[in-house]
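Look over this record before class:
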Amino acid sequence: MLARPAVAARTAVFVQTRNMATLKEIQTRLKSITNISKITASMKMIASTKTTRAQRAMKVARAYGKVSNDFVKQAEVEKAAEAKELLITVSSDKGLCGGIHSSLARQSRKYLAENPDAPVVVLGDKAKVQLQRAYPNNIKYSFSQLGSTIPTFDETSAIASTVLNDKEIVFDNAKLLYNRFVSAIAFETDSIECFPIEQIVEAPNFKAYEYQDEVLENLNEFLLANSLHWALVEGHAAEMAAKRSAMENATKNAGDIINRLTLQYNRGRQAVITNELIDIITGASAL
């Protein structure tokens, strides 16, 4: 007669201990996820501020870039037959911004699959890591320390000078792959065609412009630097917008997990209290 209450008591103690361990684990997870949600919310606010600044810089860079493109279009510069093209992938070093870098690397791999001998210049470590796995021999230059702040024209001019002054990189024209800013929640991978000054001089409508011979070399470097600056600044704006969206989604997901864990914790706590009441009633009945 006395054995049954003892067995029931041992079972209740075991269930209570197991529930307490589970509650402690849930409480630990709740604390860690709450801290993560605070971090992502702060990163979202920072990204929102940077997005506004990047959009202002993007409008200026886009205006100058379109002027260069209009100049080439009005000159009616045509791509040479069987021209050797240089691929310049414009990325950055920063992550936590969704699939913005993966989309750029995917388009670059698609291009290299069709042009396996094309030399590549990579701006940013994110795209470099992905392209280096499949096409390590194609990468001639890689530039890092990009994306932390809004790119400046001095940086892009230095990159353009390095590429143009390297005699080992032989190309007829360059293709820039970058992320074009569409809206605060959308971007598209786009390209910009850059032509060397030799092709521009031979263009049908270029003779309408007055120029001096010593200016052509500077014009060649300026056109590439200007297009690079446009691609970098617009890619930076798209990255900041994507980071803001990613941090907003992360904060929302963390909130959903916190709500589920809170409900689970309350149910477990209620079960522990119920078991304690059962123990008290069982002990009172035994007496």
